[in-house]
Design brief:
alpha+beta; ten-stranded antiparallel beta sheet; Glucose Permease (Domain IIA)
């Protein structure tokens, strides 16, 4: 004869383990808001937990237990416990408050084309732009008419070199940045730091007084990033000016003409005569012409004290004083000046001092022999 009493006890124990496991999961929920919002009061969960444990202790009350489970499911559903976060509810690394989150989602224009962009509207709106092949932060900024600072801030970009094709980025209709307040911040100190008015900050964020608790997320209309904040995302954003065989590195080496030890202030990349040479970074051409051992040479000045040098060119395709975009054609590979054959001598200087290009993100070698 089957011992149903022991069978029931065994099944109750399994059920108890499953419920206890569920309780532990409830307590270990991620409250960051990245995956879900928790809206059930913790005391309600405690009360339900205690009730369940009492029911499990008495196997005869299985019907009541099932009823309680059904009741819990109903409460669970109506409370909206599992609520996926909507796209656009997070800007940068700071979590937007629920009311700000709602406002942004309601006003989001949608789409991914610049025709949705309207700078004449004083109400903060945004759309999602899908990055196309070959686009950089600079080209997107120019295309949409919004500053790179604004794009960096709204999308929490800490390395503009990592922008990938098909990635969607937030593009607001008003220039400005997002700022998360710190403990010591006041509206006055924030306004002074980012060179905006206190009244503009109040108007943009519907503030009635100057009280800004720590962690408050503010939109600063018309503000730009500080030099340090901008450098974090853009300071090392260089693209390779050419692809070819890596023939000489930076630093101490033997002079190819005399055989004596010398200091090489750049790197050499061998490429066929006439190959295209492109600007590694946007900037102003400060020299374009013949310069001693460099032969035909172009020097471009960039932000944050950087300069790039392109030597031994066969042709120079830019003029002194002109502004060039990143990736723009500036010359062709040659062997002018003190050169042993067709190649590009490429230098990066920071505040006038040569630095090893291979140590800058985006300028590393593809392999041991190829650049």
């Amino acid at each position: 004869m089957t011992d149903y009493k022991n069978v029931f006890k065994s099944k109750y124990k399994k059920l108890e383990k499953e419920i206890n496991k569920s309780f532990r999961l409830i307590y270990q929920l991620d409250f960051s808001g990245k995956k879900r919002h928790i809206v059930i009061d913790k005391t309600v969960i405690d009360r339900i937990c205690k009730t369940f444990k009492k029911l499990i202790a008495n196997p005869t009350q299985i019907i009541i237990l099932i009823s309680a489970l059904v009741l819990f499911t109903i409460i669970y559903s109506f409370a909206g416990y599992y609520s996926p976060v909507k796209e656009g509810s997070f800007i940068g690394k700071a979590k937007i408050k629920e009311e700000q989150e709602s406002m942004l989602n309601i006003n989001a224009m949608g789409g991914n084309e610049s025709k949705y962009f309207d700078t004449n509207n004083s109400e903060l709106k945004f759309f999602f732009y899908k990055i196309k092949q070959g686009e950089s932060l600079y080209t997107i900024s120019k295309k949409l008419g919004v500053s790179m600072d604004t794009l960096i801030s709204f999308n929490s970009i800490d390395n503009a070199h990592t922008l990938n094709q098909d990635k969607r980025i937030i593009v607001p209709n008003i220039q400005g940045i997002i700022y998360s307040t710190k403990k010591e911040d006041t509206l006055e100190s924030i306004a002074q730091k980012y060179k905006v008015s206190v009244e503009d900050i109040k108007d943009a964020n519907d503030l009635t007084d100057g009280d800004v608790p720590e962690g408050t997320v503010l939109f600063l209309p018309g503000a730009s990033l500080t030099e340090a904040e901008r450098a974090k995302a853009l300071g090392y954003l260089f693209f390779k000016p050419i692809y070819g065989r890596f023939t000489s590195g930076f630093g101490i080496r033997r002079d190819p003409f005399t055989g004596d030890p010398g200091y090489h202030t750049g790197i050499d990349i061998s490429a066929p005569y006439g190959s295209l040479v492109k600007a590694s970074k946007e900037g102003r051409v400060v020299f374009a012409g013949w310069q001693g051992g460099y032969g035909k040479c172009v020097v471009i000045k960039h932000l944050f004290g950087f300069e790039t040098v392109y030597g031994h060119l066969s042709r120079i395709l830019v003029s002194n004083g002109s502004w060039v975009k990143q990736g723009e054609l500036i010359g062709r590979v040659g062997s002018t000046g003190r050169s042993t054959g067709p190649h590009l001598h490429f230098e990066v200087r920071k505040f006038g001092r040569p630095t090893n290009p291979l140590r800058l993100t985006g300028l590393g070698k593809r392999s041991r022999y190829w650049y």
